[in-house]
Amino acid sequence: MGKVRQGFFACTIMLTMLATTGASMAQSVAGAEEFTRSCASCHGLTGRGDGPLAEYMTIPVPDLTQIRARNGGDFPMLNIIHLIDGRSGLRGHGGPMPIWGDRFETAVIAQRGDVGTEIAVRGRILALATYLEAIQQ
Is the CB of residue 68 less than 8 Å from the CB of residue 75? Predict the structure, then answer.
């Protein structure tokens, strides 16, 4: 392989890495913003279960920074995604998590046939789950 071709591949790899890093950073910011908007009122800004509404809940609000610790050192990404989108069946606040109904419930959106909204919701769910993975202690 010639030096020009090697240089081309090296540049391509570097650009790919930069694009991936930029996408990861954007997803992290989006996840943090989604958490603040949708979760912090109960789980607290740091995710420790100490939000301003936590004292009014009928069940203890979990510390989301300890998910990995509670699962033997593994972060259960798929389970977290299913919990957020309502597929897990976990009931909190008198109804399925989250309390906003179809804000994250992709099945309801898919039944309506709104593909664009479904893709956006899936992106928000993934960003939120990735953020939760990032705040593990």
Answer: yes
Is residue 64 a contact partner of residue 47, using CB atoms and an 8 Å limit? yes
Element (H, E) at 66: none
Cα dihedral sign, 85-87-88-94: positive
Q: Are 31 and 134 in contact, with CB atoms under 8 Å apart?
A: yes
Rg, Å, the chain Cα set: 19
Q: Is this model's pTM higher than 0.85 or not?
A: no
Tens of pLDDT along 89-112?
A: 665 555 545 555 556 766 667 677
At 134, give phi and psi (nearest 5°).
Answer: -70, -25
Nearest CA-CA partner of 84 in 75, 74, 73, 92: 92
The DSSP line for 89-102 is --EETTEESSTTGG
Residue 108's Cβ-side half-sphere holds a number of Cα atoms within 13 Å equal to 10
